[in-house]
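Protocol step 4 of 6: structure prediction from sequence.
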Amino acid sequence: MIDAAEDKPNRKIIHIDMDAFYASVEQRDFPEFRGKALAVGGSPDGRGVVATASYEARKFGVKSAMSSKTALQLCPHLLFTKPRFEAYKEVSLKIREIFNRYTDLIEPLSLDEAYLDVSDDKMGIGSAIDIAKAIKEAIKKELNLTASAGVSVNKFIAKIASDMNKPDGLTFIGPSKIIPFIEALPVEKFFGVGKVTALKMKNLGLFYGSDLKKLSENEMQKHFGKTGRFFYQIVRGFDDRPVNANRISKSIGAEDTFENDIDNLIVLKKELEKLSSIVYDRLTSKNKEGKTLTLKVKFNDFSQITRSHTFLNYITDKKTIFETAVELLEKLDLEEKKVRLLGVTLSNFYNEENDIITFRQLNLFEDLDI
């Protein structure tokens, strides 16, 4: 197979990722937090989880989704502040306005990151690197925040590139560099490879992209299922996924694979509390409300089950997410079973239902020949 980086016309893709977004907004707005180790989310009494940590806190190992208790053990002088999602949404809209100066092909992934296709940029600049520089400068000048950018010919490489020189970085990986870059990339750096998949790859002797490239497509699918084909394509530079300006989230969730299997219901409930907090924060940050909550449980024998509950009304609070997840867990037969992974997901969003209603109305109008 010919490597795609040398075989197809090149697009100009930018991935913009704000630097420690929530924490940076708090440090910008409140002078007492500037230069300090700060956690957004969680609390000094050890309850809850960290949503985002400032770079001063990250130096001590504090990171997103970490329990407050662990964060305090790593950084005893850590400061905590409650998330202000309305403030973050307002800033995110302003960032989006800056993006719109250069292109209409914008695919937001969250409040603080997005893909941009600038193959045909509005301002006629031509150079994706220059556009990325202009966006970064505008964000810094107008919003007093920093962003990192990755520039390449596809989404996969652009996303990895944006994380390479944080904070305030800009990394370009051109067509001629893509194949050697991917071949030298550790498997855990591949987007979509979590801790469990990375461990499985390493147990198979697969440590770098060059190792993955030795496997046939059938072998990749045998070991990694449906995602095996994606890895097979990516390691050869193929990523034709478009920047989708109308991207809609179908679900929002969080899951965690435990270092040690758990057979204690009290401990499992504590893990569900952490996951529920993460899911709630992600829902709030994306301004989503869902009706269907799904619990995912994977056991130490790698068997897996899911259980769901659909509400009449939309879920809008953390307590309901947690209590429903616990209720679903308690209905399971966990006797003599050890849990390897827990996951909580919310779906059936308000916007999706509106889309279905609109679609039905359009079909009705067509049937009536209006």
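Step 5 (inspection) to follow. The chain is about 40% helix and 20% strand.
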